[in-house]
Write a structure and sequence with these properties.
The chain has helices spanning 2-30, 35-40, 43-46, 50-58, 64-72, 99-134, 139-153, 156-170, 186-220, 223-230, 235-264, 266-272, 278-288, 291-319. Helix 6 packs antiparallel against helix 7 (139-153). The longest helix is centred in the middle third of the chain and has 36 residues, at 99-134. The protein is globular, with a radius of gyration of 25 Å. It has two domains: 13-86, no CATH class; 99-319, Orthogonal Bundle (MetI-like fold), CATH 1.10.3720. The chain starts with a helix and ends in a 7-residue tail after the last helix. It contains 14 helices and no strands. By secondary structure, it is mainly α.
Length: 326
């Protein structure tokens, strides 16, 4: 097991390296817009020396290869500035603040929102999927399958907009405008995070309900389940200890891979509910072409995905004793 985990961790290095290369290419080479043109505007036409001066101050001078090596921190070994290899994601081109300092408060907010959304999805879809499997081709099964298709089809942000619109018109209700962190006011923080977390968990719940139902139906038809029932075991023991555990492997795979997508997908909800997370920070950075912020956030999202896939692979051995890693 230890050797397998070590190999998987080592494999994340080329993956993250590829992410840095692609992110840099899209932003600095392929993107037709330029942050210097955005900053200087019309003033750059009257002052030719303004552009090279800003490029030097913002670290955007020199060839692209040198800029990339400086960003990842390889030049630090030859007396250059620190980069991502040294834990430095750079500074915002506009505020001048280190990106790491900004993310210290924003990353926990987005992670919390994504985790709450994932937990909502699991708590909603797993019991309903099991119930639909136990009531196959009956009225509850048809109803739950229709509900799952509806949840998959309706965008979560549309539901959020409807709740805010009709909540303010009919009930004179609106979510808190001023964000409170958990350590400042736990109760107000929960009020702010609860509604977007519930809505975020709705969309993936539809597909997860159908997956849980399908896997449970497949497992319940297996010989070992019939043998367990023939031995006189309680139905709850057969259902949860024998059937559900063996049905969880594909379900855990989907849940683990979808968690980073849910965290990254909080961009819209953070904008709608005015939550200062990574998503809202990313939108602001993209609008202003703040290169270090966009590059750093993309790297964090990629890292979360890699870690989630690794944890999913490791969880297989605990769910199915037949799986062994070498």
């Amino acid at each position: 097991m230890q050797g397998y985990i070590l190999r998987r961790i080592l494999l994340t290095i080329p993956t993250l390296l590829a992410v840095t290369i692609l992110t840099f290419l899209f932003l600095r080479v392929l993107l037709p817009a330029d942050v210097i043109d955005l900053i200087i505007g019309q003033a750059g036409q009257s002052d030719p020396g303004l552009r090279p001066m800003l490029e030097r101050e913002l670290g955007l001078s020199g060839n692209k290869v040198g800029q990339y090596l400086n960003w990842i921190g390889l030049n630090w070994f030859w007396g250059g500035e620190k980069g991502i290899l040294q834990g430095d994601l750079g500074r915002s081109l506009f505020s001048g603040r280190p990106v790491v300092d900004e993310l210290k408060t924003r990353v926990p907010v987005s992670l919390e929102l994504g985790l709450w959304g994932q937990l909502t999805s699991i708590a909603f879809s797993v019991p309903l999927g099991i119930w639909a499997a136990l009531r196959q081709d009956k009225l509850p099964d048809y109803g739950l399958r229709s509900l799952a298709i509806l949840m998959t089809s309706v965008p979560g942000f549309w539901i959020a907009v409807l709740i805010l619109t009709f909540g303010s018109i009919w009930f004179e209700w609106a979510p808190p405008i001023e964000f409170k962190y958990l350590w400042e006011d736990p109760l107000d923080h929960l009020r702010i995070m609860l509604l977007p977390a519930l809505i975020i968990g709705l969309t993936p719940s539809g597909a997860l309900v159908r997956l849980v139902r399908t896997q449970m139906l497949e497992v319940l038809r297996q010989d070992y389940v019939r043998t367990a029932r023939a031995k006189g075991l309680r139905e709850s023991t057969v259902l949860y200890r024998h059937a559900l555990r063996n049905a969880l492997i594909p379900i855990v795979t989907v849940i683990g891979i979808s968690l980073p997508n849910i965290i990254a997908g909080t961009v819209i909800f953070e904008q709608i509910f005015i939550i200062p997370g990574m998503g809202r920070y990313l939108v602001e950075a993209v609008n202003s072409l703040d290169y270090p912020v966009v590059q750093g956030l993309n790297l964090i999202f990629a890292f979360l995905l890699v870690v989630s896939v690794l944890l999913v692979d490791i969880s297989y051995a605990f769910l199915d004793p037949r799986i062994r890693f070498r």
